[in-house]
Fold Protein kinase domain-containing protein.
Amino acid sequence: MELCSDGAVEDKLRSIGRGIPPAQRVLFSMQASRGLEYLHSKICIHRDLATRNCLLHGSVLKLADFGMCRATTCYKIDLTKPQNVRWLAPEVWKTAETKFNTDVYAFAITLWELFEIPYRTPYQEWPAYTVKERVMGGYRLQTPKEMPEAVMTLMKSCWDHDPDRRPIASEIRKQLEVINLAFNDDDNLPTGRFDVVEKDPKSATLTARSEGGKSFMGLPRAL
């Protein structure tokens, strides 16, 4: 088993807070999406995705805590037992089923955790039963003030009330790779802050665009 010597991401977010720059948070998001894509490619549902279950080794984030992971595309749960309500997709309360798209919902909450400054537990002001009722009714967390618009758009698509409208893990990873390139150094690309990722249906590209309107790059969505 690999040793991740720098502990859980949640602990780092709590202890350092604003000391983690936006570019690092974007990088963590991308790394988490790669882990989720790999897990889903192996036909496994994580079922407990959250920053507390993401570990760090230096600047590398890795998914961890696979105690609830199941090698299937659909896993029935017992709703009479305690659940991680704050990360649980609303449809699970009706179907009692966890799937890839319920992991995607949890990924959205994980994105929220990564950008909420100072860190706090999702819906921390509410008891679990209130979270359940409000989320089932369509309520979602307020967007973190320092979350880039492109990440916000992705987050909202991941927690869509309709599970069939949520992106799959590979699509999430592709979008976050584009966003990460806009935030972090690359040998062949300029750097800087870009807040919007646009989809061009004609050319099938993703483009990172600055607030001033300058295009950063276009990448095939199939990459």
